[in-house]
Amino acid sequence: MQIIRSLADLPDFRALGGSVGLVPTMGALHDGHGSLISLAREDNDVVVVSDFVNPLQFGEEDDYVNYPRDLDADAELAQRYGADYLFAPAVEDMYPGGTPQISVTTGTMGTVLEGASRPGHFDGVATVVTKLFTLIHPHRAYFGEKDAQQLAIIRRLVTDLNLDVEVVAAPIVRAPDGLAESSRNQRLSPAERDAALVLPQALRLLADGSSVDEARALIDANANVELDYLVVVDPADFGETTKRPALALGALRVGPVRLIDNLRLG
């Protein structure tokens, strides 16, 4: 596997022949990312993993500074799951001169739920993903269903801007204890991780027919977590609904870490 650190060193991947699959990440790779890389490997002749902690999608400076970074470990995992290239540019290379003057805005879809809690987050995501699509020219790009709102926004981005890429979604990968795999899990202490399990437990309550109020009460009873939101939405527009099928979405903070999860209902 080849590690590419500069935009100037990026090859014309499509000229290599065959199809190109891209797995966009912010590093701190785990088995959830591995499942995306494996899927891309099955589908494509060339697999590129991007490894870039994007400052545009962080609202809090401490969150950006403390985000886990380990390029050597990322390279080992990416290679083990079948990547051909790891693209790990510097911030100065991606954003010469600092924050770009021109960026992508995500409209109403980017201002509710995660967007309300993290203003500007999805604009930052959409901007960097557009840059990656432009730089790498993948035939397919792979995203996890754990970030359900992000996935919906990327699909709308591709449609609205007529981008020549197929968006492929992969199921959530969970640890044996039920917690959705996330790079942020690395920052949890054992006690904080135990407390965080209340989020998938609350989502399972909703899947079993409990009300949103009952599921929220389960989380509120845990003094070690702070609930941001727990809602059931229509996956088409992310408006709250009582109909099925639907998507249950939750976000909470435990210690210094903010976690999200979701579960399909019906």
Quick structural gist:
The chain is of the alpha/beta class. It has helices spanning 31-43, 61-66, 71-81, 91-94, 114-117, 121-136, 148-160, 190-196, 198-207, 212-220; strands at residues 2-4, 20-25, 46-51, 85-87, 140-144, 166-170, 225-233, 246-254, 257-265. The chain starts with a strand and ends with a strand.
Model description:
- Helix content is 35%, strand content 21%.
- It has 266 residues and is an alpha/beta fold.
- The strands form two sheets. A six-stranded parallel β-sheet has the order 1-4-3-2-5-6, with helices on both faces. It has a three-stranded antiparallel β-sheet with strand order 7-8-9, with helices on one face.
- It is globular and about 55 Å long.
Taking the sheet with the most strands, its summary is: 6 strands, parallel
Structural class designation = alpha/beta
SSE pattern, N- to C-terminal? EEHEHHEHHHEHEHHHEEE
Rg, Å, rounded: 18 Å
Strand residue percentage = 15-25%
Shape: globular
Distance between the termini: 42 Å
Percent range for helical residues? 25-40%
The overall pLDDT average reads 95
Low-confidence runs of at least 5 consecutive residues: none
Number of helices: 10
Query: Widest sheet: strand order?
Result: 1-4-3-2-5-6
Family: Belongs to the pantothenate synthetase family.
Subcellular location: Cytoplasm
Function: Catalyzes the condensation of pantoate with beta-alanine in an ATP-dependent reaction via a pantoyl-adenylate intermediate.
Pathway: Cofactor biosynthesis; (R)-pantothenate biosynthesis; (R)-pantothenate from (R)-pantoate and beta-alanine: step 1/1
